[in-house]
Amino acid sequence: MLTIRDLKMTLGARMLFENASLQVNSGDRVALVGPNGAGKSTLFSIILGQKEPDTGVVERDAWTMVGFLPQEGEAHGEETVLEVATGRVEELPRLEKRLHELEAAGDVSCPEYFEVHAKHDALNDPQVETKAKKMLRGLGYRDTDFDRKAREMSGGWIMRARLARLLVMEPDLLLLDEPTNHLDLLSLLWLQKYLKNYSGALLLISHDREFMDEVVTQVHEISEKKLIAYTGNYTDFLRQREERYEQQSAAYKNQQKEISSLQEFIDRFRAVPSKASQAMSKLKQIERLELIDKPIAPKKPFRFQIPQPPRGGQRAVSLKGIHMAYGAIKVYEGLDLTIERGERTVLVGPNGSGKSTLLKILAGVVEFQEGERDLGHNAKIGYFSQHRAATLDAEKTVLDEVIASAPLMREDEARAILGSFLFRKDDIFKKTEVLSGGEKTRLNLIKFLVDPPNLLLMDEPTTHLDIHTVESLTLALERYEGTLVFISHDVHFIRHLATKVLHVNSGKITVYSGGYDYFLEKTNALDDERAALTAS
Fold first, then answer.
1. What is the pLDDT of residues 264-274, one digit of tens each?
2. DSSP assignment of 370-393
3. Which of 230, 310, 352, 462 has the fewest beta carbons closer than 10 A?
4. What is the spatial distance between Cα 254 and Cα 237, in angstroms, rounded to a whole number?
5. What is the pLDDT of residue 512?
6. Which of 55, 52, 37 is nearest to 427 (CA)?
7. For 474-501, what is each residue's pLDDT tens digit?
8. How many alpha carbons fall within 13 Å on the CB side of residue 481?
């Protein structure tokens, strides 16, 4: 289906790959992993023919339909959500035009013609609208959203509609670049289940380890400019990589010991006539050795001690009789809720159920129409919103922001923490106004961790973070002694942190005094909701 052999790729003066190889067969489920900048998205571009490698072979089966979901996208014109998902306005006309061009040029036996024709047929299917609606419901859309203009919605919702279109076409090979970034928890779990039963092959880039554990059966790591293959899911990969490193380290040390012993004999007896021939023999023995490179240790999540926040009262925050509406849309009526000191609470529920609004009410950043919000004794609130830039000073550098948050921290300590969250060398002197979305996320996290509040409210803190940074954040928050309320779609993150679950749906909150697995065990709400949403 897809074969890559002896790939070499450089960007500027930096080499991404050398002698890299990869094969994806029908039905394979492969994760591509590696640190930020290793070349994962570049490899996708090479597979799609958008970039040419320096050398190497990329072969795709002529009959293979490839579908690609990029990380970002936007809507154009007046197309509705359903029209994006069915491709009627944008994609289908583009495919028809390309078919006519290829037919006019006589290129009806080339791989591109076969692929374009297959995609055109899939979107021209009489059942395409029924299929698209099913996918949209599974990805969190309500039926009332289908006729909304896509351009009125956020980029995340547009990406969901494009993902729905991709699933409608059912490509033989799906290339997904961070597909879970824009999904809420329920939509993520729906997609996870869908992909586990998908008939085609899958090659994905993801920072969500639980998602990879559930979906993939192979992992290829970009390491040392090569693609190293492992069998199993992400957890299997971590174990096998550690074993591989230990074996390589042992082989390297044994060879270095052998070379040292031989060299010692050479140095000692080279000038001794009776031993000179033996010394030369041992020198040739060294020259014949196939030298083993010193292996690079697998990257570990960074661990640092969070300063403990000031102790608050037993009740961190409480809400009584809250009525909240946006115009005519009622979100909460008579809501009562108490968050106790030390609780680690995750908010789960369908998109649009009011999770982010509840977090904003707790943080005091939105005005409700009726009711009371009562902060506990000595409460110090930190609110990590989805709008990361709002809490940063555009004129300050990255380093300035961290030092301003923790004036007693030494600069070398600040640099160490910044380095662990992927701000290295001159990155720390960037002005915050030029940072990417992911960089702003990481910087805001650092600010909370170096000067933590005793009530920390976090809305999707892992979005745009790589897997190592998510793990570092998880380890840091595990040692946090304050009160935590958060929204996340990262199941691994939730499982490690949550001790209480609030299920939010239709303005009602159901409390589960246990972790995420306890919530799943005690309720079949997930299955019920998804069954209703995906019913055709």
1. 999 999 888 88
2. EEEEEEPTT--EEEE-S-GGGGS-
3. 310
4. 25
5. 93
6. 37
7. 998 998 999 999 999 899 999 999 999 9
8. 9
Which residues pair with residue 223 across a beta bridge? 226
Q: How many residues does the chain have?
A: 536
Sheet order of strands, 508-512 included = 381-384, 455-459, 483-487, 344-348, 500-505, 508-512
Question: Could you give the angle at the alpha carbon of 523 between the alpha carbons of 517 and 525, nearest 5°?
Answer: 115
Q: What is the pLDDT of residues 393-408, one digit of tens each?
A: 888 999 999 998 888 8
Which of helix, strand or coil describes residue 265?
helix
HEC secondary structure over 125-157: CCCHHHHHHHHHHHCCCCHHHCCCEHHHCCHHH
Quote the distance between the C-alpha of residue 135 and its chain's center. 21
**pTM of this structure:** 0.82
Residue bearing tokens 């006729």: 147
| Residue 7 exposure: Cα atoms within 13 Å on the Cβ side | 28
How far apart are the C-alpha atoms of 322 and 507, rounded to whole Å? 11
- Measured distance CA(92)–CA(32) in Å, rounded: 30
Smallest Cα–Cα separation from 4: which of 31, 22, 24, 27? 22
Question: Minimal CA–CA distance to 398: which of 378, 360, 425?
Answer: 425
Backbone angles phi, psi at 490, to 5 degrees: -90, 105
The CA-atom distances, in angstroms, between 427 and each of 154, 223, 432 are 29, 23, 10
Integer Cα distance of 393 and 404 in angstroms: 11
The contacts of residue 95 (CB under 8 Å, 6+ apart) are 87, 116, 119, 120, 123
Say if CB 506 and CB 484 are below 8 A apart: no
Q: How far is the C-alpha of 33 from the C-alpha of 473, rounded, in Å?
A: 19
Average pLDDT over residues 43-69: 90
CB atoms inside a 10 Å sphere around CB 264:
11
C-alpha–C-alpha distance, residues 294 and 320, integer Å = 62
Q: Mapped to the 3 state alphabet, what secondary structure does 343-365 carry?
A: CEEEEECCCCCCHHHHHHHHHCC
| pLDDT at position 524 over 50 | yes
Does the structure show a pLDDT above 50 at 168? Answer: yes
**Rounded-to-integer distance, Cα 294 and Cα 304, Å:** 28
Sheet holding 201-205, edge to edge: 66-69, 173-177, 201-205, 29-33, 218-223, 226-231
- Please give the pLDDT value at position 128: 93
Position with higher pLDDT, 268 vs 301: 268
Burial of 70 (0-12, 13-18, 19+ CB in 10 A): middle
104: CB partners within 8 A, 6+ apart: none
β pairing state of 173-177 and 201-205: parallel
